Amino acid sequence: MDRIAKTAAANKNLIYVYFCSKGQLFDAVFDAHVTHGLDSVPFTPDDLPEYAGRLFDYCRQHPEVIRLATWHRLERGDSHPDPAVAAPTRHAKLDALAAAQKEDGIGADFSPATLLTLILSIALAWSPSNATNMPAAASDAESAEDRRSAIVAAVRRLL
């Protein structure tokens, strides 16, 4: 908290008065950057491959989002559900997926929750926090555009 107060040029005691704890401060930062950030990527159930591509683009431009989400999972684990998973917008995405599946039959082999999880996993496959991410030397030949194209193609095949 000392470092945060110094960086923010704020009084540490006032930070505690406003947020009550480091945990509540972290939740506020998480909500501002992760939940709202990911919600800013337009969700298009009629074009899920492109949604995955836009999500990849957003996370490349905002690596702090992946870092915060990873930190949340590491620090909080199952004791505090990920706010991005419990967010009302996630429920809206699941409802939109269910409607698209019913109407168009897209990804009908999966429940909406499983389909969304798979799409998010594919879109974030090259994030720095992904344990299966290849070492830099092995992946240097692939550009961000190549990876984005692979993500879009993989989601298209999934559907």
Using brief descriptors, characterize the structure shown:
single chain; 159 residues; mainly alpha; 10 helices; 71% helix; 0% strand
Put the structure in a nutshell:
This protein has 159 residues and is mostly helical.
Describe the structure.
The structure is a single chain. The chain has helices at 2-8, 12-19, 22-39, 48-61, 63-76, 83-86, 88-104, 112-123, 136-139, 144-158. It is 71% helix and 0% strand. The protein is an all-alpha fold. The model has no long low-confidence stretch (mean pLDDT 83).
Number of helices: 10
Radius of gyration: 18 Å
For the residues shown, what is the average pLDDT?
A: 83
Oligomer: single chain
Instruction: Tell how many strands the DSSP assignment holds.
Output: 0
Please summarize the sheet with the most strands.
Answer: none
Distance between the termini: 46 Å
**Element-level helix/strand string:** HHHHHHHHHH
What level of helicity do the residues show? over 70%
> Based on helices, strands and strand pairing, what is the structural class?
mainly alpha
Q: Approximately what portion of the residues adopt beta-strand conformation?
A: under 5%
The best one-word shape is: elongated
Spans where pLDDT lies below 50 across 5 or more residues: none
Topology:
Blueprint: H1 2-8, H2 12-19, H3 22-39, H4 48-61, H5 63-76, H6 83-86, H7 88-104, H8 112-123, H9 136-139, H10 144-158
